[in-house]
């Protein structure tokens, strides 16, 4: 969490400094594509107020992110999504609004590009987030067990070295390749005392199943504790019968 807060603070500083430089120091060269314009277009854009308002948009974005920052220190589960989602919608929505200050002959094209970009980026992130929140199942078969969904796979039951039911999840130290959401950890993480591990964890939903394979360590549970215990019994019995 400290690393996340530090990252957001750095982003706030970057947006704030860029906005201040553009808005108050007339550092218009910091705006993408501005320097490649003709002198006539540059002057027209300045008269329309586009570069000045671009700086203002960056400053406002920094202010919004700063106002939302305390949410990360509250029990609100979706503070991260609210922070980055708010930033994205505010910033990209502002870019669409600023198209009205484009030179008249390029205004329609600017609207089309900014709206298309907004739809593509917001749509892609929304789809990825929804896909990340999709559930998973632990399915015990005759010789394999499978974990479905993103980051899921099949493993041989005879490769299981240990199956344990834990009431407390060990500390997750870092994400290496996965999805870390307020209520869910899915993918590859580093876990204290266990090292690199594959997680399918519903946070604050004890108990947790620990599966140790020849070359993999897995933690998995379900929101429903009874379902988690059912998975554990099925996998433990199958592993014992396979030996």
Sequence-ordered SSE layout with sheet pairings:
Elements: H1 2-25, H2 39-48, H3 50-68, H4 79-98, H5 104-133, E1 138-140, E2 144-147, E3 153-156, E4 160-166, E5 172-181, E6 184-191, E7 195-202, E8 208-213, E9 217-220, H6 225-242
Parallel strand pairs: 7-9
Antiparallel strand pairs: 1-2, 2-3, 4-8, 5-6, 6-7, 8-9
Helix pairs in contact: 1-3, 3-4, 4-5
Give the strand line-up of the largest sheet: 4-8-9-7-6-5
How much of the sequence lies in strands comes to 15-25%
Major pleated sheet:
6 strands, mixed
Q: Which of globular, elongated, flat, extended, rod-shaped describes the shape? A: elongated
The total of helices stands at 6
Structure description:
InterPro entries: Bacterial_PH-related, UCP037672. This is DUF3784 domain-containing protein. Residues 138-226 form the Bacterial Pleckstrin homology domain. It comes from Cytobacillus dafuensis. It holds the Pfam family bPH_5. This protein is of the alpha+beta class. The model has no long low-confidence stretch (mean pLDDT 88). It folds into 2 domains: 2-133, no CATH class; 138-242, no CATH class. The chain is built from 6 helices and 9 strands; from the N terminus they run H-H-H-H-H-E-E-E-E-E-E-E-E-E-H. It is 50% helix and 22% strand. It has helices at 2-25, 39-48, 50-68, 79-98, 104-133, 225-242, and strands at 138-140, 144-147, 153-156, 160-166, 172-181, 184-191, 195-202, 208-213, 217-220. A 6-stranded mixed beta sheet has the order 4-8-9-7-6-5, with helices on one face. The protein starts with a helix and ends with a helix.
